[in-house]
């Protein structure tokens, strides 16, 4: 339990950066991401959700499995894309 508390106290920006790096090469299943990060399912889901909401990661279905992948323009947040469309 101590390890979980230490992970939760780390800054969120570091976790999102790590997750983005893990998704750079190809789409990944959540189980693989949990194994790679060691964060556990709940924390991994939270980080992925943050990235999905920000528009940097997309969730897709491949061969019946949910996969997570970086968006092609992942360096640009959803807010920036929305502002450009409105202009």
Describe this structure in words.
This protein is α+β, with helices and mostly antiparallel strands and 87 residues long. 56% of the residues lie in helices and 14% in strands. It has 5 helices and 2 strands. It has helices at residues 2-9, 12-22, 30-37, 41-53, 78-86; strands at residues 57-62, 65-70. It has a two-stranded antiparallel sheet. The chain starts with a helix and ends with a helix. Residues 1-6 have low confidence and may be disordered.
Order of helices and strands: HHHHEEH
Biggest sheet descriptor: 2 strands, antiparallel
Please compute the radius of gyration using only Cα atoms.
Answer: 14 Å
Instruction: Figure out the total of helices.
Output: 5
Residue share in β-strands: 5-15%
**Which structural category do the helix and sheet elements fall into?**
alpha+beta
How many β strands by DSSP?
2
Intertermini distance: 49 Å
- List low-confidence stretches: 1-6
Give the % helix: 55-70%
Mean pLDDT: 81
Backbone shape: globular
Biggest sheet, strands in spatial order? 1-2
Keywords:
alpha+beta; 5 helices; 87 residues
What's the topology here?
Blueprint: H1 2-9, H2 12-22, H3 30-37, H4 41-53, E1 57-62, E2 65-70, H5 78-86
Antiparallel strand pairs: 1-2
Helix pairs in contact: 2-4
Q: Could you give a short description of this structure?
A:
The protein is of the alpha+beta class and 87 residues long. 56% of the residues lie in helices and 14% in strands. It has five helices and two strands.
């Amino acid at each position: 339990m101590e390890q979980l508390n230490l992970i939760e106290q780390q800054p969120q920006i570091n976790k999102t950066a790590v997750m983005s790096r893990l998704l750079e090469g190809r789409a990944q299943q959540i189980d693989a991401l949990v194994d790679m990060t060691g964060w556990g399912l709940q924390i991994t889901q939270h980080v992925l959700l943050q990235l999905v909401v920000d528009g940097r990661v997309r969730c897709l279905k491949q061969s019946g499995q949910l996969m997570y992948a970086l968006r092609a323009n992942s360096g640009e947040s959803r807010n920036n894309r929305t502002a450009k469309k409105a202009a």
